[in-house]
Amino acid sequence: xxxxxxxxxxxxxxALALSAGxxxxxxxxxxxxxxxxxxxxxxxSYQHDVGRKAIEKAFGDKVETTYVESVPEAxxxxxxxxxxxxxxxxxFTTSFGFMEPTLKVAxxxxxxxxxxxxxxxxxxxxSTYAAKFHxxxxxxxxxxGKMSKSGTxxxxxxxxxxxxxxxxxxxxxxxxxxxxxxxxxVVWANSWYDPAKEADAAKALLDQGVDIIAQHTDSPAPIQxxxxxxxxxxxxxxxxxxxxxxxxxxxxxxxxxKYYVDRTKxxxxxxxxxxxxxxxxxSGMVVMSPYKNMPDDVKKMAEETEAAIKSxxxxxxxxxxAKQDGSQVECKxxxxxxxxQVLGMNFxxxxxxxxxxx
Amino acid sequence: xxxxxxxxxxIVTASTPLLIAAMGELVTERSGVLNLGVEGMMAMxxxxxxxxxxxxxxxxxxxxxxxxxxxxMSALFALVVLGFAANQVGSGLALTILGLGxxxxxxxxxxxxxxxxxxxxxxxxxxxxPLIGRLFFEQDLFVYGSIALTVLVAFYLTRTRxxxxxxxxxxxxxxxxxxxxxxxxIRFLAILFGGACSGLAGAYLALVYTRFWSPGMTAGRxxxxxxxxxxxxxxxxxxxxxxxxxxAATVLQLHAQAAQFGVxxxxxxxxxxxxxxxxxxxxxxxxxxxxxxxxxxxxxxxPDR
Amino acid sequence: xxxxxxxxxxxSPVVRALAPVAAFITAFLIAGLVIWLxxxxxxxxxxVYVSQPLSDPWALQELLVKATPLALIAIGLAxxxxxxxxxxxxxxxxxxxxxxxxxxxxxxxxTEAGFWxxxxxxxxxxxxxxxYGLIPAFLKTRFGVNEILTSLMxxxxxxxxxxxxxxxxxxxxKGFNFPQSVTFDxxxxxxxxxxxxxxxxxxxxxxxxxxxxAVVLGRTLFGYRLRLTGDAPRAARFAxxxxxxxxxxxxxxxxxxxxxxxxxxxSGQIGQLQPSISPGYxxxxxxxxxxxxxxxxxxxxxxxxxxxxFIGGESAQIMLKLPLDLTQAFQGILLLCVLAADALVxxxxxxxxxxxxx
Lengths: 358, 305, 358
Fold this sequence. Notes:
The structure holds three protein chains of three kinds. By secondary structure, chain A is α/β, with parallel strands linked by helices. Helices cover 39% and strands 18% of the residues of chain A. In chain A, the strands form two sheets. Chain A has a six-stranded parallel beta sheet, sandwiched between helices. In chain A, strand 3, helix 4 (99-108) and strand 4 (113-117) form a beta-alpha-beta unit. In chain A, helix 2 (44-59) packs across helix 9, helix 3 runs parallel beside helix 4 and helix 5 packs antiparallel against helix 10 (296-311). Chain B has a two-stranded antiparallel ribbon. In chain B, helix 1 (3-30) runs antiparallel to helix 11 (236-258). Chain B is globular. Chain C is mainly alpha-helical. Chain C has a domain at 66-301. Chain C contains 13 helices and two strands. Chain C has a two-stranded antiparallel sheet with strand order 1-2. At the B-C interface, helix 3, helix 4, helix 10 and helix 12 of B face strand 1, helix 6, helix 11 and helix 13 of C.
C-alpha cells in the first residue's frame, strides 16, 4: 500500500515538474510546513505541529499535510522549494530566519500560497503572521508581581531580539502595575533550545533571590527548575503543567490551530489573500492555560486583565512609556505604541535595572 | 542556604555528566583508543534510559538501559576499530552521527513524558557542616557515584596490575603485545567501559538533570567531555578539576548576567570555552612538552607475526 | 574468541575501488532493514532517497549547491588529516572567514565601490579562515597544546562572535532590530555560474581546489612530506622536514579553504550575515573527508553523496513521512561501512576462537 501511494506521489511529482509547478492536483490540497526545530521540542515547532494536525482533523480527506523538521535557517531555500515542487498548494514556514528564502521561492512559484511566521516581508502570494505574546506576558507579569515574596522576579531569555525584549518589557510593566517596587533579573541562555543550559539559567536566577521564573526559551527545563526549588514559573509555548504541576501558575500557549485551519479553508474556498496578521488573545492565537497554584484574588485579577486585553480595553504598551533613562517614547499608535514600535523594540522600559545587550 | 552554597551546588550538578563521560573516555584513551563518539553514545544513553524509565516506571532500570545502550554503541565501535582496524577518528565521528540519529528514533515516542526528581541522599550529620556540608553530603547518588568513579579509576590505573597492563597497551601496543598482553581484549573492555560511562552520563542528563527527553538534548556535552580528557592530560584527578572548572564557568557566566555586569552575554557565554583553552595553555606551559598522551593513542593495532 | 588481522600483501586497484561500492551496498541493506522494521517499504525509500534526486535536473543542481561548501572544507581537511593533525574546528574557520569577508561587504554597502570588492572579500575570507586556523596550530607548535581541543573550543567562540556582531554593531538599521545585516550589494555578491541558477562560483572554486590538491598531494614534494609526517613522523624529521612548519602550513590551508567556503556561502547563497550561516558544514565536512578516504577525487564524490543524503532525506520526510533522524543514522552507518571496508581491503580478518593463537 505504501509503495502504491508512493507511485502516485511520484507520478504527481513528475507531472508537476513537467508543468513547471502549476496549480495541478485540485482534488486534494497539500499543505506543507517547514520547522526550524525538531517536532519533539515541546515548544515552538511542536506547537506548529499541533496546528498542522488541527488542519488534518478539520478537513480530513480534503487535505494532506507534510512537514520538514529541523531545517537549518542558512540552508532552507531548498527544503521550501522541495515542498513547492511536490504539489503543495499552501506552505507555512515557521521561523523568522526563513524570511528571505521564503520570499525567493514565493517569487518563483506565483501560484502557490506561502505563509511566513514572524517576518515582515510580504508578496502577493506571501502572507506573514505572528502572535502578540506580549499580551500574555503582561498578565503573567501581574501574577508574578502579586506572587513574588522576595520582590525580585526572573526571566530566562533566548536572544535579545525585539520579540523577546518586548516580552520582558510587557512582563515587567505588568508586574510594576501591581507592585511598583518590583525588580527583575534577566539571563540570556543564548540558545532557543538547550534544556540543561536553560535549567542552569533558571537555577542561577533562583540562586540570586528570584522566586518567580518566566521564560522565553522553548524547553520545560526552567519551570521544572522552579518546581524543584518550590518556586513558581510560567509555561512557554505549550502548556507545561505536566512538567511542573506545582509550579506552573499559567502558560502562554501558542495556538496556531485556528489560524491554520482558517487559512487552509481560504485556499480551499479560493479566497486566500496576502495579509499581515498579528493576532493576540482576542484572535485565539495567544491562549492562557488555566490559572493555578495561586490565591483566588490573584486568579480573579488575572482573569480580569485577560478579559480587558481581549476586549481591547487594556494595551500593555499604552502611553506614556518611559525608557530606562526616563525619556518618553514617542507615541505612534492610538494612545499606545504602534505595532511597528513593538515589533522593533530595542530598549528596556524604566525600572528595569539592567543593560540591554546591543 | 546561602547564595554561595546554592551556586556551588548548581556547579556540581552541571559538572557531573561531564565528569562521568570524561572518566569513561579517559580509560578508553589510556588503552590507546580514541573514541570521538562520546556525544552519540551519550545521546543514546539519554534516549534509552528515558524510554526504559518511562516504560517500566523505574529509574533504576532506566539507568541500566542507559549504560547498556552506551556499551552497545561502543561495542559496535570496537568491532570496527579493533576487528577491522579502521580509522578511529572517522569511526568515532560516524558513531556520533549514528547515535544522534538513533536516539532521535528511539526517543520520539517519549516526547512530552516526564519523570519525578530522584531522591537527594543526605549523609546524616555531615550534611549539617557549614559551607561544605550540603555541597558534599546532600547530593543525588550520581554525584557521589561520579566522585567514587574518579577515585576508582585513579586507583585502578595507578595501583592495580590490570591498570598497569592497560596503560602499557596504550603506551606501546607493539611491545605490550610482545610481552604477551592481550591487547585486543584489554582495548575491547576499555572501549566498553567508556561507552557505559557515556551512557550513564546521558542517563543523568535525561533522568536527573532535565527529567524529560528531547532530541539533541546533549547539546555538545560529549565533545566537552572529550576536551576534558585532553585538558586533564589523561589523569583522573585533573579530569575532576577540569569538569568542575568548566561547570563553574558555565554556571558563573549565567550569574554574571543575573548580577548585571553589563557585559554582552555572548562574551560571557564564550568564557567557558576560552577558559578551557587558557587553562590548558597554562598547564602545557608548566608541564613543558610532555603532556602525557598515551603513546599509541589513535593508532590501529595490527600485530606483525 | 578474537579477531586476527593480517596485512594483505598486495591489493589490486580494482578491489580498492570496489570496496566503497560494497560498503554502500551494505549500508543500504542495513538502512533498508531498519526502514522495514519501522513498517515502511525499503524499495520506496530507496527511490525517494537515491533514484529520484539523481534523475531530476533541479535536484542535481541542488546537489551541487549543497556539495560545494562540503567539498571545499573537506579538501582542506585532507591536508591536515593526511599529516595526522586533527583540525576539528573547520566550522569556526568557516564562520571567521565569512565574518571577515562580510566586513568589507558591509563597509562598502551603498557606496559606488566597484568590481574589486568581491575578489578582496574572497581573499579576506581565506585570510580570516587561515588566521583562525593558525591559532590552534600555533598553540600546538609553540606550547604543545592539543589541537583537537583548541580547534573545537574556538568553534563556539567564533559562533558567539558572529552572534554578537549581527545582533549588535552589524545589525541592519532598517531591519526592525531583527538580528541580520543588510543584504549585500550586487558588487559584493558571488554570482551564479549559470544565469538564474542556484549554483554559484564557489562550485568552481571547489573544483579547482580538488584538481590542485590532487596534483599537490600526489605529485609534489609537499604532498610526500605530509604523508611522511602522518605515517612516520620520525622518518619525516630525519628527512629534514620541520614538523612545526608542516603543522602551520596544513592548518593555514585547511582554515583558508574553510574561510573561502564561508564567504562564498554568505555572499553567493545567503546574501547577508545572520546568526546562523552554516548548518554544520564544518563538522559534516569531516565526515566527507573520511568518506572520501582523504583522496581529492574521493572527497568530491563523497561530498556529492552526503549532499544526496541530505536532499533525499528531505524528500523522504515530504513523500514518505520518514523522520529526519533516519537520515542521520544512515549517514553514520554509511561512514562506518566505508571505513570498515577500507580496512578490510588492507587486512585479512579471521575470527579465531580463544586459545588457538596467542
